[in-house]
Design goal:
There is one protein chain. This protein is α/β, with parallel strands linked by helices. The protein is 44% helix and 16% strand. It has a six-stranded parallel β-sheet with strand order 3-2-1-4-5-6, with helices on both faces. Strand 4, helix 4 and strand 5 form a beta-alpha-beta unit. The two termini are 27 Å apart.
Length: 186
């Protein structure tokens, strides 16, 4: 049980990769606060909550509402104590030819994928520093952040920003012994 006694916050974790990571963390002994935009936890997550009733809680959170993120972290800490791990996974995707991409799509993708990622990371890092936690942040990057693609220009740009913020945060947090990494599946 590599994560025994650790508290992890996972964003965008009501399904897919986020849910799979939550399952792995729980299996390794972590206590997990799972955040997602849905009012209620989906059935698959509810089943996991029943399996790990003292290790897993669901909290509705919108990472684009940056003024609420410090409170979100505080609520999670009220349940499981200081945060040791942030798995920053919340993201949206849009597909459109470059000449048909809209401002609304741009605003939505940058709001969730960049702004939400950065300010969630900032809120958790501030807590880690305050509590002297030698923790870890994992930001979900993408291969798309390393190269452009014709039909997903906004998404590629957001993931390039995630990669850059991850590198900057890693340098800034090194003195606090907090690791900040990005992973790019696929």
């Amino acid at each position: 049980m590599k994560l025994q006694g650790k508290h992890a916050i996972l964003t965008g974790a009501a399904g897919g990769i986020g849910l799979a990571v939550a399952q792995a963390y729980l299996h390794e002994g972590a206590k997990c606060t799972v955040l997602d935009i849905n009012e209620q936890a989906p059935d698959e997550l509810k089943a996991l909550m029943a399996q790990y009733p003292n290790q897993l809680v669901y909290q509705r959170a919108d990472v684009t509402k940056t003024s609420e993120l410090t409170h979100v972290v505080s609520q999670a800490e009220d349940v499981f104590g200081p945060v040791h791990i942030l798995f920053n996974n919340a993201a949206v995707f849009d597909l459109a030819p470059l000449l048909e991409s809209t401002e609304a799509s741009y605003d939505k993708l940058f709001s969730v994928n960049v702004k939400g990622m950065f300010f969630m990371m900032q809120a958790v890092l501030a807590s880690m520093v305050k509590n002297q936690i030698k923790g870890a942040v994992i930001n979900m990057c993408s291969q798309a952040g390393r190269r452009g693609e014709a039909l997903v220009s906004h998404y590629c740009a957001t993931k390039a920003a995630v990669l850059s913020y991850t590198q900057s945060a890693a340098l800034a947090m090194a003195e606090h012994h907090i690791r900040v990494n990005g992973i790019a599946p696929g």
